[in-house]
Automatic annotation (TrEMBL):
PROSITE patterns membership: TYR_RECOMBINASE
Domain of life where this protein originates: Bacteria
Signal peptide: none
Alphabetic keyword roster: DNA recombination
Pfam family, one: Phage_integrase
Coiled coil: none
A single GO molecular function term of this UniProt record: DNA binding
Annotated GO biological process: DNA integration; DNA recombination
Entry-linked InterPro entries: DNA_brk_join_enz, Integrase-like_cat_sf, Integrase_catalytic
Protein name: Tyrosine-type recombinase/integrase
Domain spans labelled Tyr recombinase: 152-336
Amino acid sequence: MGKSNPWIPTWSAGKNDWVIDFRVEGKRFRKNLRIRDKNLRSTAMQKARNIYKKAWRDAGSSNREKKVSTFKAVAELYIQQGGEERFLPKIVKHFGPHIRVDEISHLDIARAARAIYPDAKPETVRRQLRVPIKAVQNFAAGRRREKIPDTRRTRWLTPEEAERLLVTAADPEAINLRDPNLETLRKITFMLGSGAGPGETMAALGENWNPATREWWLEGTKTVFRARYVLLPIRAVELIGKIPDSGPAFPAPDGQTYTFRKNRGGQMAVAFNKVRDAAGLGKAVTPYVLRHTRHSWMYAMTKDWGDLLDQGGWNRSDTANRYRKITPDDLGHRLLEHGWDFRRDPGASVRFGEKVSLRIPPDTS
């Protein structure tokens, strides 16, 4: 059975000194105290006790340090758990395999920016260096927001369904909808062309329209959408028709300006639902589905992820991921057949046959 106080020193006549001999966490401490007077036992006891306490403090610190993983190891776990990998390899390479995740300071990040991105703009450094490092550190500290798998099915309209909706909205009298100026058709078209939400559509201002570039400035909302420019395809511009120079661009069917409420997007639902039902579309098709439709259409045609994020206006990019995988491969061609072209630069027009090359076999007769 071990001593209750293993640090207590003993007098060694051979060494003419007080001696300690104990272990802390497997490490042996055996040394002379250099107190060469047998009568100074209390002094030796105090010094031995201090050495023993310090040994345990050092052992605790060492254990804590061992529990803190390296940035490289945490980054690998972060990626395995679904974290963004794109910019981390350069960062890990710069810091090497040994630096702890909690050791990287603001100065270290500044030095890394100078080494990895010497000519980059501050926003690039923030996005490609500071944000990934912070994400890994938050992951190590258990502060990472857990991603919930996106299992929600996003309803969007096929070009054929949208055509039925537009044709119905273009003849409101046939469905007993009092809409002499076709304002419901204009709003449906604007949302299909811009991806604006219902509330954004009713708040859209004529002075924010740039006909030269076919871009509309949407001022965004406090919590849902960022302010942004959206590009309208030519067909949307043609169906919307005349746009006022200033003021609300899309009034109610009776021509009156909307009075905004907390849930202002629902104010167009009555007229929209009447058109939807007459077009034979189910109740799952709400005004908001038009926003989903536009972004599904645009990405299917352009495959431009950056443009999707810019024009979608999401405060987080997670939501935009669903628009990359919910449409069939032929959707872009079908959209062109119906006159919807979301490409910023479709290229110069060509005559039939200009891009066709025929290889005529030689005459062997």
